[in-house]
Design goal:
Blueprint lengths: L1 H10 L17 H13 L4 E8 L2 E9 L15 E2 L4 H14 L15 H10 L27 H5 L15 H4 L2 H9 L3 H13 L4 E3 L17 E3 L9 E3 L13 E3 L1 H12 L6 H7 L14 E5 L2 E10 L3 E8 L4 E7 L19 H11 L9
Antiparallel strand pairs: 1-2, 1-11, 3-7, 4-7, 5-6, 8-9, 9-10, 10-11
Length: 375
């Protein structure tokens, strides 16, 4: 209904004839110069950055080229696989579903039909999320207990390694199966749920939920293909075409969108168009004091202010970040089709402020502005 009313108002208002044409984008020459240099130094073929303030896009630029042959410049519409930023869409979808009585986040996730086999595979896979590895800070990764009940909420907050709910370790492998669980329990596709509870309420008309999404097919025409870093002796720019990673939609990954579209998504969250204030507060509140992760979002502080965010990273393909400062109404998104944006955030703590790109955004858009009342 809200979208219909907005459309009707725009039909009768010349001011709404083209919302994108009326955005008052800021120049920000120092920030622009930093981004140009950042792209080259970090070897990103196509690089997009956008910022929204109180629901309006105030900065949005593309750098580099969105094709293999460096003939098509990156534009504001250039899209990318946003990778793990998809997890934020998942969290909003599940919280909204629970509010409407479709699921219960306290349900035992291990009721998933293929859980036993999946968990056994994970335990013996040798990958870090299966347990046995040691993190850089000396933390030993405990295995996921295959025969112990784990709630949907514990999966959503990445508290599944070791005794479920006892501690945090980012685990995208287990998280990704949340979509399978929902589909089994509701007999409805995960794409339908996510579109109903996130994409449509937010008015995101340039978002594809996986590459098989018929309603987001137009987004694929702006997709920047992936690149990997290579020896500069082989290529003067130090990059080479890479293999497209899994573009299917699941709870962990699959959303395809531009950086500017991600800022619209973040603004829709702040404006209560996806979740009401109580649910938004729940999504961004860690289950334990001082924990670095809430429900589908990393949480940390910058100069005493709350920052919620998520990174996305497909090795040798795509990397990006979506960051929201709720008290300021600020949303920042950056996307690229190479590893250059990825800053190696640890698996057990939030460290977005270690990213040079995030620090540049904070300095340019937040350092000199006072925070407003929390939404």
């Amino acid at each position: 209904m809200r979208r219909l009313m907005t459309t009707a108002l725009c039909v009768f208002s010349a001011a709404c004839a083209s919302a994108s044409d009326n955005e008052a984008l800021q120049e920000r020459p120092e920030f622009d110069a930093f981004l140009k240099e950042f792209r080259i130094e970090n070897r990103v073929q196509s690089f997009s950055v956008a910022v929204a303030k109180d629901g309006d896009v105030i900065f949005s630029k593309g750098y580099g080229w969105q094709d293999h042959d460096a003939e098509e410049p990156t534009t504001r519409e250039t899209s990318y696989l946003v990778a793990s930023i998809t997890k934020t869409f998942t969290a909003a979808t599940l919280l909204a579903m629970e509010a409407d009585g479709h699921i219960d986040l306290q349900t035992d996730f291990t009721e998933l039909s293929d859980w036993d086999g999946r968990c056994a595979w994970l335990a013996g896979s040798g990958i870090i999320f299966g347990g046995g590895a040691t993190l850089d800070d000396g933390t030993v990764v405990e295995p996921v207990p295959c025969e112990t009940p784990i709630t949907l909420e514990q999966v959503l907050s990445h508290r599944v390694n070791g005794e479920p709910g006892s501690g945090f370790l980012y685990n995208p492998v287990v998280f990704g199966r949340l979509s399978n669980f929902v589909e089994e329990q509701t007999d409805r596709s995960w794409r339908d749920w996510m579109r109903s509870y996130v994409v449509e309420p937010a008015g995101l008309d340039a978002t594809a939920l996986g590459w098989r999404d018929p309603e987001g097919a137009g987004v694929l025409t702006h997709l920047a293909p992936p690149f990997r870093h290579t020896d500069r002796e082989r290529d003067p720019d130090g990059i080479a075409p890479s293999v497209l990673p899994n573009p299917e939609l699941n709870a962990s990954s699959g959303v395809i969108a531009s950086a500017e579209e991600l800022t619209r998504y973040g603004s829709a969250l702040l404006e209560g168009r996806i979740l009401d204030k109580a649910l938004l507060r729940r999504m961004w509140t860690p289950p334990a004091p001082g924990a670095p992760y809430a429900l589908g979002w990393w949480v940390e502080e910058w100069k005493g202010e709350r920052v919620v965010w998520h990174g996305g990273w497909w090795p040798d393909a795509y990397a990006g970040v979506l960051l929201i400062m709720p008290e300021r109404g600020l949303v920042f998104a950056a996307q690229g089709n190479a590893d250059g944006i990825h800053w190696g955030n640890p698996l057990n703590r939030a460290a977005a402020t270690k990213s040079p790109l995030v620090r540049a955004f904070l300095h340019e858009f937040a350092a000199s502005e006072a925070a407003s009342v929390e939404p």
